[in-house]
Design goal:
Length: 282
């Protein structure tokens, strides 16, 4: 397995290495739902909702360096990363294989320091404001240069592409296999050149009323609730106002086999966030 910390500036601290060894890392995987209830008939309570609060956990790291210089460099780097993320309010990520959780390291304690061995046990306190383990799944639907005829399927897929969809348009119908446990947060990336980019996912419309030149792209992120446009020179622009207000653009994408409809000339990427209470172990 892999277990490491990614600082908000991209610095990596490997928690399984020649100099660092975690003790009981499975303590990081504690999964808990909170709940609220309402009184029911006969005084029997009913569940009103389940929810997750900020979560605290801890991890012990056994530090064992080859020499004093290596020990000091490692301890300095860990402190710099953890402290910087807290002071800038930018969470780091703790990675368990290909899943990550956004966290802050808010506490550090030390045990069994051995100066001659350049070793110590460092216990870190972890705060996760969004206590989900997340893995990204990317799906790419490129623009098609040549248009040959229209789509004519001899059978019924059993999907409803939504009211107002024109089945005679020369569009592309593809499928997205969303294997997440529940409806997914996502990021859409529309690539220029295009006018008013639109994609229909599971019958729901995601539309921006904007123009994208060659080399430009726009992103729609349902987690951050941000819509951004990026120019050729890297300039970022807030284009939240360009969203189609008649169809909620941050609607989560349902799990299962989902139809994706787009114009043939449009290139779009769909990134799904697989958010879970615990990651896959191996």
């Amino acid at each position: 397995m892999t277990l490491y910390y990614e600082c908000s500036d991209g610095t990596i601290i490997n928690f399984i290495s020649d100099t660092i060894s975690p003790e009981e890392p499975e303590t990081l995987l504690r999964n808990e739902w909170n709940y609220s209830t309402i009184s029911g008939v006969g005084g029997i309570a009913r569940i009103k909702r389940f929810y997750k609060d900020a979560q605290e956990s801890e991890l012990k790291l056994q530090i064992l360096a080859d020499n004093a210089e290596q020990y000091n460099d490692l301890m300095r780097e860990m402190h710099r990363c953890f402290e910087r993320d807290v002071r800038t309010l930018q969470p780091g990520k703790i990675w368990w294989n290909d899943f990550y959780k956004e966290i802050f390291v808010v506490e550090a304690e030390y045990e069994e320091f051995e100066e001659l061995m350049e070793s110590v046990i460092k216990k870190i306190g972890i705060l996760s404001v969004s206590p989900y383990w997340t893995r990204k799944h990317s799906f790419t639907y490129p623009a098609l240069v040549e248009v040959v005829g229209t789509l004519d399927y001899p059978f019924d897929y059993g999907f409803d592409f939504g009211t107002g969809y024109d089945y005679d348009r020369a569009d592309v119908v593809e499928f997205l296999d969303n294997t997440t446990v529940y409806d997914s947060n996502f990021e859409l990336i529309f690539y220029g050149p295009c006018d008013n980019p639109q994609v229909v996912i599971g019958g729901h419309y995601y539309t921006l009323y904007t123009d994208l030149a060659t080399g430009e792209y726009a992103t729609v992120n349902s987690r951050s609730k941000k819509i951004r446009k990026f120019s050729n020179n890297g300039q970022e622009e807030n284009i939240f106002y360009t969203r189609d207000k008649s169809s909620y653009i941050f609607e989560k994408i349902p799990s299962g086999l989902v139809p994706v409809n787009k114009g043939r000339g449009l290139g779009v990427d769909i990134i799904l966030y697989d958010e879970r209470g615990e990651p896959e172990w191996i």
